[in-house]
Amino acid sequence: MLRLIRVESTDKHTKGILLVGSKLFCFTIELPWKDNKFQKSCIPCGTYKISKFLSPKHGECLKIHDVPNRSWIRIHPADRPSQLLGCIGLGTSLCTYCAPNNRREEGVAEAEWGVTLMYLLDKLPCETEITISNL
Fold first, then answer.
1. CA distance 1 to 109
2. Of 13, 46, 73, 101, which has the fewest beta carbons less than 10 angstroms from its beta carbon?
3. What is the average per-residue pLDDT within 45-52?
4. Other C-beta atoms within 10 Å of 116: how many?
5. Nearest Cα to Cα of residue 90 among 72, 67, 68, 110
């Protein structure tokens, strides 16, 4: 089972940690909480079924099932909130990116795009659960 603990939330992002069992696996990045608004907000806290899924856009990823009033929520390669529409990105560390116009954007980093997700997929059965909570 997976646990995502949200440790920081601002009006621009939500940072968290992902545990596999009781061990820290990686860091997460999501959109900020905006009342579960479609493509504008991270998803509500709760326990969800997840399954391995082959996405035409993102390749191998994890599908999060039965999110209230939402669909197509995934854990997929992404390193900053501007690349997300309600999904969750994974990385080995937290970082700050310099976006166009010298705008700073918080995110996650990894040595190679999508590697953290591939390691996670290797550790998981085809279906399991994720519990998402705030610190």
1. 24
2. 101
3. 98
4. 26
5. 110
Tokens of residue 109, six digits: 């980093």
Give the bridge partners for 27, in sequence order: 17, 91
Taking CA atoms, 53 is separated from 63, 96, 97, 107, 132, in Å, by 6, 29, 29, 24, 20
Using alpha carbons, list the distances in angstroms from residue 33 to 5, 43, 44, 57, 76.
Answer: 14, 7, 8, 24, 19
For the chain, the domains span 2-134
pLDDT digits (tens, 9 = 90+) for 17-27: 999 999 999 99
- Amino acid 132: pLDDT: 98
Q: Which residue, among 62, 87, 82, has the nearest Cα to 2 in the 3D structure?
A: 62
